[in-house]
Structures are given as C-alpha cells and as structure tokens.
Design goal:
Layout: E1 9-11, E2 17-19, H1 25-68
C-alpha cells in the first residue's frame, strides 16, 4: 500500500495502517513512562528517607544505652 505522497505504509499489530515515520512512537512512550516513574521514585524517596533516618538513629541510641548499662548481678 502506498499513500498519495508515495510514502510506504505498514500494518500495525492491530491491523491499523501506520506511516513509517510513526514507528519510533513506542520508544518515546516508554521513555516518557520511565521518566515519570523515576520522578515518582525520587519524590517518594525524599519523603521516606528522613523518616527512616530517625528510626535508625533511635535504634542505635537504644542499642548503645542497652549495651553500656551494667547488668545487675
């Protein structure tokens, strides 16, 4: 099949007729999704990491107090 402007056309997986210059569209969509997922991970990390840091500091403080306290005989 050819278009009026002589560019070849192909059939997609669902039987749609596509221009050859639309073949890279899937890659662009995947890169956009990857960018959004990366942004979400960065945002969640910024929210979660400070809370985890507080828990770790409290855990080490508790452990140091427990380990340095003399045991009763």
């Amino acid at each position: 099949m050819e278009r009026a402007d002589a560019r070849p056309m192909t059939r997609g997986a669902r039987g749609r007729t596509l221009c050859r210059d639309e073949r890279g569209q899937t890659f662009v969509e995947y890169v956009m999704i990857l960018g959004l997922v990366s942004a979400i991970i960065i945002a969640v990390t910024g929210i979660v990491v400070p809370g985890v840091g507080v828990v770790v500091v409290r855990l080490f403080t508790h452990m140091s107090v427990y380990l340095t306290t003399p045991m009763p005989i």
